[in-house]
Amino acid sequence: MLHSVAHLSSGKSFSMPDAVHISIARQFSETPFGRYLEDGKESGQAFREKILLPLLNEGRSVVISLDGVAGLPSSFWEEALGGSVRAGIAADRLRELLVIETTEADLETYVRLGWRYIDQAEVKRQTNQSH
Amino acid sequence: MAGFVTLAINNLNEKRRARRDFVTKAFEGPRDDIKRAVDASLVYYPHSACDRTKAMEAQLLAAEREVRHSLTAVLALQEKCDSAVYHDAQTAFDDFIAVLTSGSFQTKDAEEDLMTVILIADAGAKLRSALIGLRSETLSSAVANDWLSQAQQALSGVRRSFGK
C-alpha cells in the first residue's frame, strides 16, 4: 500500500493514505510545455488526460511533486489543473483528492499558482452554469 | 567609557551600512531580472508562431527561471513573512510568473500577441513597485532590531514616562 506524506509550502504536513505519487519530472517531463495535445506530447492537456484525470476519476488521492522540473509554463500548468475543473472535477473535490508539493523553494510559486488556476476555473464554471 | 561607547556606536553604524548595502544589492538583482524578462517577452510575443524561434522561447524561459530564483532569495531574506508588504510582494511575484508564460506561449497556431506583452509589462511594473516596499520594510526591520535602536526606544520610553 502506498503511503504519501505531503509537505506543503506552509510547513504543515499530513498523511494521505493510498495516494498515488506523481513526479512530473521523473514520470512525465523535466521540461513540460504547451497547452494542447497539438502543441506537443508534453503538454498540459496530455498530462491531464493521460495521467491526472484517470486517477482522479477513480477517486484516487494524488500527490503531484514538482521537484526536478526546470519550470512550469503557465500554459501547461493552467491547462493541466484548470482543465481538470473544466473536465468536470469541482475545485472542492480537487482539494480533497489533490496535493501539490515541492521541496525546492523556487518552485513554490507553482504550488500557489496551481491552486489559483483551479479556483479561477471553478469561478468560471459556476458563472457559466448560472447563465 | 565615552570612548568605548563611541567605538561601539561607530561599529554599529558600520554594520548598519554594510547591511543596507547588502539589502540594496540583493534587491537590484531581481529588478534587473524582471526587466530582462519583460524585454524577452517583447521579443517573443509580438511574433506569430511561425516567426517565433526556439532561441526566443529559450530566452523567455531562462528569464523566467532567473526571476524565480532571485525573487525566492529576496523573499527568504524577510524576517516577517506575515506582513502585508510581504504578501503583496509574493502575490505580485506569482502574478508575474503566471503571466510571463501565459497567453499564446508555445501555442502552435499563435498569432501576434500584444495583449500578453501589455499584461507582462504591467505585472512587471507592479512587482518592481512591490519590491520597493519590501526593501524598505527589510531595511527598517534590520535597523529596528539592533541594540542602539532598542536603547533609543527604551530611552524615549523613559522620557515619556518622566514627561507625564
Task: Record keyword descriptors for this entry.
heterodimer; A: 131 residues; alpha/beta; three-stranded parallel beta sheet; 5 helices; B: 164 residues; mainly alpha; Four Helix Bundle (Hemerythrin (Met), subunit A); 80% helix
- What is the domain total for the residues of chain A? 1
What spatial form of chain B do the alpha-carbon principal axes imply? elongated
Rg of chain B over CA atoms, rounded to whole Å, is 22 Å
The most extensive interface between chains reads: A-B, 23 and 22 residues
The secondary-structure element order of chain B is HHHHH
CATH class membership of chain B: Mainly Alpha
Helix/strand order of chain A, N-terminal first: EEEHHEHHEH
Number of helices of chain B: 5
Describe the structure.
The complex is a heterodimer of chains A (131) and B (164). Chain A is α/β, with parallel strands linked by helices and 131 residues long. Chain A has one domain (3-130). Chain A is built from five helices and five strands; from the N terminus they run E-E-E-H-H-E-H-H-E-H. Chain A has helices at residues 24-27, 44-57, 74-86, 91-97, 108-130; strands at residues 3-7, 13-17, 20-23, 62-65, 98-101. Chain A has a three-stranded parallel sheet with strand order 3-4-5. A two-stranded antiparallel sheet of chain A has the order 1-2. In chain A, helix 2 (44-57) packs parallel to helix 3 and helix 3 crosses helix 5 (108-130). The termini of chain A are far apart. The longest helix of chain B is centred in the first third of the chain and has 43 residues, at 2-44. The mean pLDDT of chain B is 88. Chain B has a single domain, classed as Four Helix Bundle (Hemerythrin (Met), subunit A), CATH 1.20.120. The relative contact order of chain B is 0.14. By secondary structure, chain B is an all-alpha fold. Chain B is elongated and about 75 Å long. The A-B interface holds A 33-36, 38-40, 70-71, 73-76, 78, 105-110, 112-113, 116 and B 61, 64-65, 68-69, 72, 76, 90, 93-94, 97-103, 105-109.
